[in-house]
Amino acid sequence: xxxxxxxxxxxxxxxxxAAEDRDALFRVYQQPELPGQRPLQDxxxxxxxxxxSVQMAATQRGMMxxxxxxxxxxxxxxxxxxxxxxxxxxxxxxxxxDGLPExxxxxxAAALETCIGFLSSKYHLRNFAFQWVDGQNPAYRDMxxxxxxxxxxxxxxxxxxxxxxFVDVELYHRLLDQDVPDPTARAGx
Length: 189
Description:
Acyl_CoA_acyltransferase, alpha+beta, GNAT_dom, eight-stranded mixed sheet, GNAT family N-acetyltransferase, acyltransferase activity, transferring groups other than amino-acyl groups, 8 strands
């Protein structure tokens, strides 16, 4: 049974992670975007992440999508969209994108919007969070506000980057009043 759908957007798609994605995912996690995050040492470390992505979706604890750029028949995996800390009673979930440097803000925004549309329509989630860690690309903050997120909190020294070093975290939220269109819905159904 497929719990994580493939969703298309202008310029790319998100789709369930698969075992054959391991090498492309390894490239992504060789260039971590979060301060203090170390590059993976062994591609086999990703096997467990791929397995867990199915379990997370099946138990409504989260979802993970491969983020691919391109068009039909010519896609390249450049990142991962993660949805975690799913709190069904609060209709809340936290989103994250890990990507290669060439994955620009416009494609990240389109992927986030697509995933939000699906999660809102399918699971009626209304409260979407995103954490920006000091040291990440500052353009991500502008991208988040452009698609409806607003800064809701700053956590001083909330992210550990080394044994004795910490940086601040900014928490952004997007609250929805109603469902946004489901990108998997077909016209007339």
